[in-house]
Amino acid sequence: MDYFAQQLINGLVLGSIYGLIAIGYTMVYGIVGMINFAHGDIFMIGGFIALITFLILVSMGLTAVPLILLVVLLVSMAVTAVYGWAVELIAYRPLRQSFRLAPMLSAIGMSFVLSNFSQVTQGAQVKPIPPLITGGHTLHESAGFAVRLSNVQIVVVVTTVVLLAIFTWLVSRTRLGRDMRACEQDQTMAALLGVDVNRTISMTFVIGAALAAVAGIMYLLYYGLVDFYMGFVAGIKAFTAAVLGGIGSLPGAMLGGLAIGLIETFWSAYFSIEYKDVAAFSILIVVLIFMPTGLLGRPEVEKV
Amino acid sequence: MSGNDILAVEHLSMRFGGIVAVNDLSFTAQRNRITALIGPNGAGKTTVFNCITGFYKPTEGSIRLTREDGGFRQLERLNDFRISKLAKVARTFQNIRLFPGMTALENLMVAQHNVLMRASGFTLLGLLGLPTWRAAERDAIERARSWLDRIGLLDRADDAAGNLPYGDQRRLEIARAMCTEPALLCLDEPAAGLNARESAALNELLLAIRDDYDTSILLIEHDMSVVMEISDHIVVLDYGVKIADGAPRAIRDDPKVIAAYLGTGDGEEIVAEGVS
Q1: A273-287: string of b/e by CB count within 10 Å (b at 16+)?
Q2: Same domain (yes/no): B254, B201
Q3: What is the pLDDT of residue B76?
Q4: What local confidence, expressed as pLDDT, does residue B1 receive?
Q5: Number of CB pairs, chain A paired with chain B, less than 8 A apart
Q6: Which of B51, B52, B75, B81 is best to mutate for the A interface (most A CBs within 10 A)?
Q7: Is residue B93 a part of any domain in this protein?
């Protein structure tokens, strides 16, 4: 039972990170109907920006951890958002009126561009950082096994929950959120009501990238390392999470993220760690056979 | 050409390859009047609307919208969101295009984008939650609710627009267009699919818009009970060419119009039964 509880905690933490990335996939799919395959690499860029900011702050002699975290968070979100904005502007917008596969191919290309850009500028080796947030709490102990909840896990989950709350408010209650939903349903009509569709789409990429940056920071804090290749696997997992939850659905993305995180963790814990990805993707296939629109997805409605 | 024209279409032509949808069309719409654009199916009415609202770039011609202060915009040079933002032209569609997944209230809120955009300091200030933005948001909700009240949908404000009955959706679409505070409202067959009672209510709504909101209306309609009753001026198209232009009474008796609708000249029947 204790072992189960421990895995549950680990799974939820991993799932939070996947969920944050998955939101970016699902938002972009909702508004422009394409899979932004470069999104995983945006997450990786977020991690690197965080690392670089961290190193700069430390070399400036800053030692207060909460302050460092706050600055890293803000800088990484801002810079990564610029990356997200630029990717859309350069690689997707010119192809928006083109055939459906064109922006997707462009996205795959952009994914390579970003990961190779990091490899060239930052080097190919794994970049570690010392643990920033240490310590934790022992929740329960028996028979030599302790269920531990580390402080970094708390930070990851709390940050995710807070960001999701802000994000949900943004989408459901603000002008920008309304514009985004309007563009999602009928771009032409939204434009006729005065909504600048291009600008709204840009904002979608900016917000998605900022959330991916947070996921990158959480990854860096949790695993203590970044490398240029980490965006690929995390991106595929988060994409899977978005599809599992029902692509286009925001709560679905978060739910899918948590599901993938939990499946992976439990599979690794009880079966074999080598096959954790196989397990996650198998479950995806099974779910999609029985629920083609994912867990929370709406049935596909043909747009006129 | 009187000084009180809000819209002046001059020598407008729209060709698609070899097909001439609109051919050298000129007409004007007066400020604070209801101008109807009628004609048999395929006459090019919707094409004219599409040119006015930036969907099509006219092959030739000019579409000038004059503001009350005398300034003007050439609509054929604007497109996309600028039609609403700069020229203050709004339109509705033959097939209703609400945002079905958003509530009735939200549909009207999206339409107030221009006002809210300025008030929110282009998003940045809005994120900070400044009081001016909050006040603007409140005003927008207030305006939306007053429109819902006017069209009798206040109690369904939080229902998804797609779940409303057909007639309500039509009225909501007009209310949404009005929430952009347009100078010119273009309505594409607003009475299509409405029953007699609903179309009488529509007449009242359109007359109220003309009289109370300083908005001029350009109307495409097949329902002659609507057209004859509320139009101040009628322009008749056939095969992309203007065949008549005048007051409802004159149009009703115009032999060319009767011929266009029936092919032969039995006018009494049209007036009695209506052409729909």
Answers
A1: eeebbebbbebbeeb
A2: yes
A3: 81
A4: 45
A5: 73
A6: B81
A7: no
B193, B80: one domain: yes
The pLDDT averaged over each successive group of 10 residues in chain A (304 residues) is 87 93 90 90 95 92 87 94 94 88 91 92 87 80 80 91 89 88 90 89 93 93 90 90 88 92 91 86 86 77 46
**CATH at B203:** 3.40.50.300
Chain B residues touching residue A195 (CB < 8 angstroms): 81, 110, 113
Query: How many domains does chain B fold into?
Result: 2
CB contact under 8 A, A174 and B111: no
Flag if B81 and A194 touch (Cβ within 8 Å).
Answer: yes
pTM, entire model: 0.86
B117 with B154, same domain: the answer is yes
Contact B107, B161 (CB under 8 A): yes
Are B153 and B42 members of one domain?
Answer: no
Closest approach of B110 to chain A, Cα-based (Å): 6
Query: Inter-chain contact B102–A178, Cβ cutoff 8 Å?
Result: yes
Whether the per-residue pLDDT at B129 is higher than 90: the answer is no
Does residue B94 fall inside a structural domain? no
Largest CA distance in chain B: 68
Distance CA B146, CA B108 (A): 10
Least confidently predicted of A249-253, B71-75, B194-198: B71-75
Q: With respect to residue A9, please indicate whether it lies within any of the assigned structural domains.
A: no
Q: Please provide the average confidence, as pLDDT, over all residues in chain B.
A: 83
DSSP track, B250-264: HHHT-HHHHHHHHSS
Question: Which one of B149, B176, B203 terminates a domain?
Answer: B176
Range of the domain at A189: 14-229
Residue B161 lies in a domain: yes
Q: Report which of B102, B43, B17 is spatially closest to residue B260, judged by C-alpha positions.
A: B43
Under an 8 A CB cutoff, do B101 and A185 touch?
yes
- State which residue of chain A sits closest to B88, comparing Cα positions: A194
Residues in chain A closer than 8 A to B85 (CB atoms): 194
| Averaged pLDDT for residues B142-162 | 90
Classify A98 as helix, strand or coil: coil
The verdict on B75 and B113 lying in the same domain is no
Last residue of a domain, one of B176, B199, B230: B176
User: CB count, 10 Å around CB of A240?
Assistant: 22
- Which of A240, A233, A216 minimizes the C-alpha distance to A22? A240
Residue A119 main-chain phi, psi, to 5 deg? -60, -45
Q: Does B111 touch chain A (CB under 8 A)?
A: yes
Task: Find the domain containing B132 and state its range.
Answer: 99-176
Q: Which residue of A has its CA nearest to B182?
A: A193
The structural domain count of chain A equals 1
- Each residue's pLDDT tens digit, A257-283: 999 999 999 999 898 888 888 888 888
In a domain, A278, yes or no: no
Q: Which strands make up the sheet holding B34-38, listed edge to edge? A: B89-91, B184-188, B216-220, B34-38, B233-238, B241-246
For residues B133 and B189, membership in a common domain is answered with no
Contact yes or no for A195 and B101 at CB 8 A: no
Q: Do A185 and B117 touch (CB under 8 A)?
A: no
Does some domain include residue A247? Answer: no
Report chain A residues whose CB lies below 8 A from the CB of B120: 175
